[in-house]
Amino acid sequence: MSRYALRAASVTAALGLWQLLTGLDVDVWLRFSQFPTVTDVARTLAGRLSGPDYWTDLTDSLTRILGGFLLAAVLGVAGGVLVARSRLAEDLLGPLLEIVRPIPAIALVPVAILLFPSNEQGIVFITFTAAFFPVLVSTRHAVRALTPVWEEAVRTMGGGRWRILGSVVLPGALPGVFGGLSVGIGVSWICVISAEMISGQYGVGYRTWQDYTVVDYPGVFVGMVTIGVLGWLTSTAVELLGRRLTRWLPRTSYGAAARTPRAARAVTAPAPPASAPRAPAPPASGTGPGPGPDSGAGTAAGSGSGKDASRDQLV
């Protein structure tokens, strides 16, 4: 079975289990009888796809995500490189960033309402804050983990500060940067939906909360499914872009590793060098070690001393 078929089978099995539990009104510890069935959610989704409100909410949420996330990506990468490369920047900005970083982005909603003249700008600010710190921290750690040998090599060839930044720092830190971007886009979706529920006028989060207030549970699940699909698509886009820009990295193919025979993957001991001395061969007979270079004299001396000892005993 291919990987795509396996993934499709897992999703189908989850939907089938959902339909089974809700269709039979199973109430064993969890109250599945309160949940809408898969067919109810699909029917509601089909009805909303034919109307303009669904697409308006979708466009508003995507616009807020892209605006806040792109701003966070640019400033997060720039700030991470600056803090990692400059001791002065680390001393000036480091304490402030570490104080603000533990504050949840959704807790800044009152600040955004007071700070910005419109709710739209406040939601973009919340989205930016949510994605900024994962990108900043990942970039900072990736830049600090670079080996100094590459930088010294560029300096030896006459490269300056900007040449080092463009040919060593940024390419070397790209894997870590895209790791932070992948985390940031997921956190951005969490916070933008929460901000839309609190202070938004349109968007997927706003519509989901409105459905909850009027007890339209199939509509709530339509919003949840929409959020999940949008988050998956944007995360996949970030991951594909990262793979495209880091083609020089070695990739591990799970299929190739599974098809490789076990004997081929076994680690073999290295062969000894040609100049290494060989161990002495065991003697052909007897239990003692083989004769050495002076074995003749030693054997004669041992034989003579043995005969003298026997003669003394006879006397």
Automatic annotation (TrEMBL):
Q: Where is the ABC transmembrane type-1 domain?
A: 58-242
Region span, Disordered: 260-315
List the biased-composition ranges (Pro residues).
Answer: 270-283
Q: What protein am I looking at?
A: Nitrate ABC transporter, permease
Q: Which residues cross the membrane?
A: 65-84, 96-116, 122-143, 164-197, 217-241
List the membrane topology term(s): Multi-pass membrane protein
Going by the entry's taxonomy, the superkingdom of the source organism is recorded as Bacteria
PROSITE patterns tied to this protein: ABC_TM1 (PS50928)
> What's a single GO BP term from this record?
transmembrane transport
Its subcellular locations are: Cell membrane
InterPro entries associated with the record: MetI-like, MetI-like_sf
Bias class Gly residues marks the residues at 287-305
List compositional bias (Low complexity) regions by residue number.
Answer: 260-269
Q: Which family does the entry's similarity section mention?
A: Belongs to the binding-protein-dependent transport system permease family.
What does UniProt give as GO cellular component? Answer: plasma membrane
Q: Which UniProt keywords apply?
A: Cell membrane, Membrane, Transmembrane, Transmembrane helix, Transport
